Predict the structure.
Amino acid sequence: MKKLLFMLLCCGIFVIGCNNNQNDEFFEDDVVAIDGDNNDDNNYDSEIMMNMDEILESSDKKAENGDYAGAISDLQKVISQAEYKGFLYAKLARLQNKIADLNNALDSANNAIKYGEIEKDESMDWIYTTRVHIETELNMFDEAIKDAEKVISLSPDKAWVYAERANIYKAKGEKEKALADYNKAISLGDDSQWIKDSIEQIKN
């Protein structure tokens, strides 16, 4: 009797062990399937990353040809995958400004500054200037002047930064301040015709 009970107990342990092994195999299959799905997603991201330069070039060409909607669409694809976004958001803001989509342009410019500061982008003067243009278009002159002063603090030896602030003063009707900044730009080597024309417009 004891021998029979022992044999039955051994058979029970064997059956349980077999069931556990089958469950482990099913679990491993599920893990492989999940991992496979993740690999597909990673390959998709990698493919976009590999084509990023080509997509950016396509965006630039479309913008040159006046297809701003297409250029914006391409640029948004790149931004969705890009590691560094500050400069790209600034480009997007400038394109949106071209089609007078000023509210979205301002949002993009804000994102450009946010990411640019985090990424320590070396072109922050250009990025801030992007928001200056949009704020000026929206008659947000005080905000635009504040940003222009930030640009000047970043690049005090560049002529164009003073010309940018001069444009705001001119739009605001502060002629003397505009003239001072235009002349500062000229003293730093920028004698562009448009600056001379702006000075003449103010004097007349």
Remarks:
- The CA atoms of residues 138 and 157 lie 28 Å apart.
- The two ends are 121 Å apart (CA to CA).
